[in-house]
Design brief:
This protein is an alpha/beta fold and about 400 residues long. The chain has helices at about 5-15, 20, 30-45, 50-60, 65-75, 80-105, 110-130, 135-150, 160-165, 185-200, 215-225, 240-255, 270-280, 305-325, 355-360; strands at about 175-180, 205-210, 260-265, 290-295, 330-335, 365-370, 375-385, 390-400, 405. α14 (about 305-325) links the parallel β4 (about 290-295) and β5.
Amino acid sequence: MNEIELRIVETLLNKPELIDSTYINVDWFTEIKLRNIVEAMQKLDLQERTLLNIFTEMNNDGSVEYKHLVDLQGGFVTSASFGNDVKSLHKLYAQRVLETSMDVYKQNPKKQELANLSEAIAELSKIDEAGDDGKLEEAIDELQDRLASGKPVGIKSFEKLDDLLAGGLYGSMLFTIGARPSVGKTAYAVNLAYQIMNKDPEVQVDFFTLEMNKREMLSRFVSRSANVDSQRLKQPASDLDLAFTELVSEGIKWVRNHKIRIYDRVLTLGGILSIIKKNAAKAKPDKYVAIIDYIGLVKVNGRQDRWLQVGKITRELKIVANEYNIPVIALAQLNRGVEGRKDKEPLLSDLRESGSIEQDSNVVAFLYRPDEDNRELVKLAIRKNREGSLGDISYYFNGKYMYFKETSEDI
């Protein structure tokens, strides 16, 4: 049995919390039984990862006996090498993929096979990169190259927002957007994703929706891209005219042609982090964004007070943004206190459940309606911005069409 895979599983059976903080792809395993054990553990919450529950979760085919799990747990010595073991496991998998890609390319030297080979080489190179030695040479070279070439900084979205963010969404950014219910924070996140992908179709967006299902989110993207009434998408096809169905088809085509992934069944912090790490590792620089809608619904294993759990969520999101040099956009709910004030503009103290949201975020902005009688005017107020400017942006918002547009305030 593969020694590295064996040590990893022995460690996980004794320290199951490591699954929530370490990205492990079960495809990396060559030993089927060990792969099945890890897969079963990933499906369970932390408090559920007992040997009996793991055995029950995976014992569909009778391939693993309960005694085998007991023996594996008893074989544990130390977790000191766990990080290096996971890295070695990933590297061995990447080497196998590279060898396979080379063989396929030799037999069929076409464009797609060459692209697969290049991706395999890039994946292996990332694993081989040296750890952080604290030196600044690489960062200095990157800055000088950017200044010399005049290349744009960051991932572009709305023009005025990009200006306040000093060029756009940048790597290592945790951008938190707070709002009260029914202001349109999900619609605004859809518009952010739409703007990002419309300006650069190569950017990949992972959208984690914890409040709506995949079909509802698809309808919002189709509505935004095709400029159609989102409510009409719920009607039977027989009630829709030809012109409308053609517009919807164009909207679906837009979605197919852009790199948007929507997750509606990934509810835990560990699951969200695993997907972000997996996809961000494969993405090119400035070509990946993760959006979480919203922090208050993310599940964290354990029985801690909710404010401590929210602190863990924001801390881990900030860490993954730093580690993979990607922007992460997180939506958050505001306290009800803002509704009782005459001035409806939210304050940083209105962030619900945890001050860690403000502490961990590079940028904090609030979406709100300054005038309840004018439902089409929505403001984004940026009230914390480590590397840019503070300021307000006015939007025209049409909820029926999922449409936000930067505008002057007098609409």
